[in-house]
Amino acid sequence: MNRRDLLAAGAGLTLTCFPFRLASSLQASDERKHASDQGTARHPVLVRSGFTRKPNGADERAPSPSGMFDTEVVRSSDSEGRLAIFVFPPGDHHPYRGAPLHVHHEQDEWIYVMTGEFVAEVGGERMRLKPGDSLLMPMKVPHRWSVAQDSHCGAIHLYTPAGLMETEWASVAQSEDPKNQEARKAEFEKHGLTLLGEALNKEEIDRTL
Question: What is the pTM of this model?
Answer without folding.
Answer: 0.72
